């Protein structure tokens, strides 16, 4: 006759059942259902946060556009690039800029004079902007030299003074001068406006455009290669850089 289960047996059976259920959950449910769903929940939360950030940026679009217009208007009033379209014209403008700065610092060239102005070629091969440079040599007093450099670097368009060399030297241009001053040489550098357009293909002559197409070659007949209509080559267009020594004057 079987013995009736005791309370201890019932608790032991319940513990074994819970252990089997827990093991089944760990082996079958958790890795195949719980882990993927939790990963999906985390991805949803991350996407919601990203959407909120993007929406906040989109809400700021009117303010950003207004600020961008203000910056563009400010840059238009103070152009940073040279206004000339070619390197030759920009080099001539640099020379005139130097002469104006010298005359402004020393009217009549009594205390400051331009000894030499020589355009320099742009020998950079990997440059993204066209650099226009001029080698300048001045003989000025200390105060006049400071005024000239300040005028060149703070005016518009933006210019840069590089490779500045200053030597103390005694010279006398006229009997009214004290005969003391500086012999200064430097490179005055500016940049042309960046071009974003693409050079169009050259127009074909009217005779060539009106000429009828050549007859189709028969099967087995060789077709001559290298005809003008096979390919079109467009060469890069670049502005010539003034040779060194193109502009030199002595006062």
UniProtKB/TrEMBL annotation:
InterPro entries: T2SSM_b. Residues 199-251 are annotated as: Disordered. It holds the Pfam family T2SSM_b. This is General secretion pathway protein GspM. It comes from Stenotrophomonas tumulicola.
């Amino acid at each position: 006759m079987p013995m009736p289960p005791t309370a201890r047996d019932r608790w032991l059976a319940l513990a074994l059942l819970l252990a089997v259920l827990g093991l089944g959950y760990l082996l079958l449910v958790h890795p195949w259902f719980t882990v993927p769903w939790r990963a999906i929940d985390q991805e949803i939360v991350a996407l919601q946060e990203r959407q909120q950030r993007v929406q906040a940026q989109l809400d700021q679009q009117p303010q950003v556009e207004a600020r961008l217009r203000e910056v563009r208007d400010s840059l238009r009033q103070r152009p940073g690039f040279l206004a000339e379209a070619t390197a030759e014209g920009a080099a001539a403008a640099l020379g005139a800029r130097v002469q104006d700065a010298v005359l402004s610092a020393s009217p009549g060239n009594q205390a400051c004079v331009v000894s030499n102005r020589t355009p320099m070629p742009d020998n950079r091969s990997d440059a993204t902007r066209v650099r226009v440079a001029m080698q300048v040599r001045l003989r000025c007093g200390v105060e006049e030299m400071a005024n000239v450099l300040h005028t060149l670097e703070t005016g518009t368009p933006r210019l840069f003074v590089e490779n500045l060399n200053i030597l103390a030297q005694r010279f006398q241009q006229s009997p009214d001068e004290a005969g003391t001053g500086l012999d200064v040489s430097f490179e005055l550098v500016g940049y042309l406006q960046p071009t974003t357009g693409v050079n169009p293909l050259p127009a074909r002559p009217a005779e060539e455009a009106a000429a009828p197409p050549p007859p189709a070659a028969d099967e087995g007949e060789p077709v001559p290669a290298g005809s003008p209509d096979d390919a079109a080559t467009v060469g890069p267009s670049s502005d010539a850089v003034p040779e060194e020594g193109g502009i030199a004057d002595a006062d």
